[in-house]
Amino acid sequence: MASRRPPLDRLEAAVGHRFANRRLLEQALTHVSGADDRIGSYQRLEFLGDRVLGLIVAGMLFETFPGAEEGELSRRLAELVRRETCAEVAKAWDVAPHLRLAAGGAFPRARQNVSVLADVCEAIVGAVYLDGGHDAAAAVVRAAFGPLMHAPRRSLRDAKTTLQEWAHARGLPNPGYELVETTGPDHAPVFTISTLVQGYPPCLGKGPSKRAAEQDAASQFLAREGVTA
């Protein structure tokens, strides 16, 4: 028997949106393991929510930091929409008990998986957008992500940018990144990426996405060479 999930009213209150079409919220909470097919899972809503989130956050940053140049705005945007930040928002909403997963096996562990929580966060944003339009989605995003704008969890100089600047200062070409392997199940892949810096041995990085693995590989390289971001 599937575990009993708490009422969706509690989640709607946390998110800050009362759904007219609650089926959208239910789909946003449905992991591929708990759906009849991929179309019935949160994946399509996550695709939409990712774009909606990026647009709204970009607008927030543009308004909040009128003196910031494009590079700083881009770094702030990357910080706010990265998986770890989206997962943090999902945890604040307490989405884990509401997730719809296949019973048994490894899938229940998805409730604590950063990639899954991040995808569900974006799927909920997409669901709110379809249910209430841009203004409703903007209100939800501003409430959840607004407080995080002024307290970045990482240096705004990301590892890949720092490594590129380090290489240029030594007259080296742009660093490259090569996919070494992909492991793990389809719902929680782990990518291994290698740095390619002319004249230096590679460093390996891992992450739930290629982008995250590249950042980790760059961070590992910088740490090995004693470079501070």
UniProtKB/TrEMBL annotation:
<comment type="function">
    <text>Digests double-stranded RNA. Involved in the processing of primary rRNA transcript to yield the immediate precursors to the large and small rRNAs (23S and 16S). Processes some mRNAs, and tRNAs when they are encoded in the rRNA operon. Processes pre-crRNA and tracrRNA of type II CRISPR loci if present in the organism.</text>
</comment>
<feature type="domain" description="RNase III">
    <location>
        <begin position="8"/>
        <end position="133"/>
    </location>
</feature>
<feature type="binding site">
    <location>
        <position position="122"/>
    </location>
    <ligand>
        <name>Mg(2+)</name>
    </ligand>
</feature>
<keyword id="KW-0819">tRNA processing</keyword>
<keyword id="KW-0699">rRNA-binding</keyword>
<keyword id="KW-0255">Endonuclease</keyword>
<keyword id="KW-0694">RNA-binding</keyword>
<keyword id="KW-0540">Nuclease</keyword>
<keyword id="KW-0963">Cytoplasm</keyword>
<keyword id="KW-0698">rRNA processing</keyword>
<dbReference type="InterPro" id="IPR036389">
    <property type="entry name" value="RNase_III_sf"/>
</dbReference>
<dbReference type="Pfam" id="PF14622">
    <property type="entry name" value="Ribonucleas_3_3"/>
</dbReference>
<comment type="subunit">
    <text>Homodimer.</text>
</comment>
<feature type="domain" description="DRBM">
    <location>
        <begin position="158"/>
        <end position="227"/>
    </location>
</feature>
<dbReference type="InterPro" id="IPR000999">
    <property type="entry name" value="RNase_III_dom"/>
</dbReference>
<feature type="active site">
    <location>
        <position position="50"/>
    </location>
</feature>
<dbReference type="Pfam" id="PF00035">
    <property type="entry name" value="dsrm"/>
</dbReference>
<feature type="binding site">
    <location>
        <position position="46"/>
    </location>
    <ligand>
        <name>Mg(2+)</name>
    </ligand>
</feature>
<keyword id="KW-0460">Magnesium</keyword>
<dbReference type="InterPro" id="IPR014720">
    <property type="entry name" value="dsRBD_dom"/>
</dbReference>
<comment type="similarity">
    <text>Belongs to the ribonuclease III family.</text>
</comment>
<keyword id="KW-0378">Hydrolase</keyword>
<feature type="binding site">
    <location>
        <position position="119"/>
    </location>
    <ligand>
        <name>Mg(2+)</name>
    </ligand>
</feature>
<dbReference type="InterPro" id="IPR011907">
    <property type="entry name" value="RNase_III"/>
</dbReference>
<keyword id="KW-0479">Metal-binding</keyword>
<protein>
    <recommendedName>
        <fullName>Ribonuclease 3</fullName>
        <ecNumber>3.1.26.3</ecNumber>
    </recommendedName>
</protein>
<feature type="active site">
    <location>
        <position position="122"/>
    </location>
</feature>
<dbReference type="GO" id="GO:0004525">
    <property type="term" value="F:ribonuclease III activity"/>
</dbReference>
<keyword id="KW-0507">mRNA processing</keyword>
